[in-house]
Amino acid sequence: MIVRRSAAVLAATVVIGTAVAPAAFAADASPSPSRAIPSGLYGSTDPTYDGVWRQSLALLAQHTVGVEPAAKAVDWLTGQQCANGAFAPYRADATAKCDAKTMVDTNSTAAAVQALAALGGHDAVTGKAVDWLKSVQNKDGGWGYTPGGASDANSTSVVIGALTAVGEKPADVSKGGKSPYDALVALSIACGSDGGGAFAYQPDKKGKLAANADATAAGVLGGLGKGFVTKAGAADDLTQCSTTDSPGPEDLAQNGADYLAKSLKKTPYLKSALAGAEDQPDYGNTADAVVALSAAGATSPAKEPLAWLEKNSGAWAAKSGPAAYAQLIFAAHATGTDPRQFGGANLVEQLGATGPAADASDHSTAPSDEKKKDDDKGLGVWWIVGVGLVAGIGIGFLISGRNKKQQL
Q1: What are the Cα distances from residue 101, in Å, to 38, 108, 138?
Q2: How do residues 231-273 score in pLDDT, each as one tens digit?
Q3: Where are the chain's structural domains?
Q4: Residues in Cβ contact with 357 at an 8 Å cutoff, skipping those fewer than 6 apart
Q5: Mean pLDDT lowest for which of 42-46, 189-193, 356-360?
Q6: Chain-centre distance of CA 148, in angstroms?
Q7: What is the mean pLDDT of residues 210-219?
Q8: Other beta carbons less than 10 A from residue 163's beta carbon
Q9: Which residues on neighbouring strands pair with residue 21, listed in sequence order?
Q10: Rounded to the nearest 10 degrees, what angle do helices 249-266 and 299-312 cross at?
Q11: Residue 10 to residue 24: CA distance in whole angstroms
């Protein structure tokens, strides 16, 4: 969520979480001659499908490493909010009122909440956004990408991260007696089944669940009540999928981490789920997996994929843009790695180069203690195609779409 989960898939497909904030479409799309990139926005590609997502991840990543973002970058993000509290992926004319044709979504909204809550001083904006998120919660306790859409693991998890960021207890946010954790339980695959321990993005038309690595990375963070930014949890060997009766969200998170750890044994990276690219590395999803494993305390299984990213992710990040750099920074932060010396690259500097100059000189090498405490603390054709693809492959987040391409 990653979004997560991966940021690239949702962004690319709709992007994710970051889910998907993938890089697929958004990263390769050049801005049209009639659409100038706002001076306060990070990235140089067409922001139609991932503007708010990539901006949110960029601001959150800068805050995480002790950099104060440019005021106009923050103002651009807050200015994208609709009167009802929701955010759309991008509004070219933020002065125009949002209406029924404005395609607001839960992932953009939740990502913005996580970023603005971390920065502080935006309680009015985040309060309205959270109120809107609560208003579109499904009866099963979860959230879909768009209001009224079927709940999915990526969207539910990125919203959990937003709730936690503003001090809410996700377990207490319910609809019809169901909390977000109930929705994640319904999307988890039982141990002993094919893909046991993993999370599915959504059930298929027959109600069956299929393991999805991007959804699993998001689900792990959601089950732990974490957002995009997290530190390593208590060490856990993750020797096998737990068959505990009536497993709680943390049990399911550990099972999801176990699934990811086993998936990364054959290769130090996760593979793309996009048709025709199944044998290709999914950099964004791998970064999200590193964050998820670290949050679950699986620090040992996170080492090889992190090392692989340090060696191989440079070209991908440069092509994909700010959300990709942010995902790598989150992975570095979660593992205690210096993002300014990430495989010989300075991720902080590279991210900064994609947007407006920070307001203050960056003299720090890590967030202050207070910042660390904060961190712990109708339908258009593009929408139909995007949602259909996301449903078919399951995004990430970054929204982990988290540029959710990244199948990301």
Answers
A1: 22, 16, 21
A2: 887 787 677 888 777 888 999 999 999 999 999 998 999 998 8
A3: 9-393
A4: 70
A5: 356-360
A6: 20
A7: 97
A8: 24
A9: 7, 404
A10: 50
A11: 9
CA distance 316 to 309: 10
User: What is the SS3 assignment for 78?
Assistant: helix
* Closest to 141 measured CA to CA, from 96, 171, 103: 171
Q: What are the CA-CA distances from residue 26 to residues 43, 69, 151, 229, 302 (Å)? A: 10, 23, 24, 23, 28
Contact 261, 269 (CB under 8 A): no
Nearest CA to 348 out of 58, 53, 34 is that of: 58
Tokens 């407006």 belong to residue: 356
The whole-model pTM stands at 0.84
Separation between Cα atoms, residue 286 and residue 268, nearest integer Å: 8
How many Cα neighbours within 13 Å face the side chain of 73? 29
d(CA 128, CA 118): 16
What span, in angstroms and rounded, lies between the C-alpha atoms of 396 and 53? 11
Please give the Cα distance from 247 to 23 (Å, whole number): 34
pLDDT digits (tens, 9 = 90+) for 117-130: 999 999 999 999 99
43-79 pLDDT, tens digit per residue, is 999 999 999 999 999 999 999 999 999 999 999 999 9
Interatomic CA distance for residues 120 and 140, integer angstroms: 31
Q: What is the pLDDT of residue 363?
A: 44
Those residues with Cβ within 8 angstroms of residue 315's Cβ, 6 or more apart along the chain or in another chain = none
The tally of CA atoms less than 13 A away on the side-chain side of residue 370 is: 2
Cβ(1)–Cβ(288) under 8 Å?
yes
Residue showing tokens 């019809």:
176
Q: CA 225 to CA 219: how far, in whole Å?
A: 10
Looking at domain 9-393, its CATH class is: mainly alpha
Length of the chain: 408
User: What's the CA gap between 397 and 160, in Å, rounded?
Assistant: 13
Residue 84 CB contacts under 8 Å (≥ 6 apart), including other chains: 98, 104, 128, 132
Contact, 405 vs 8, CB < 8 A? Answer: yes
72 phi, psi to nearest 5 deg: -70, -25
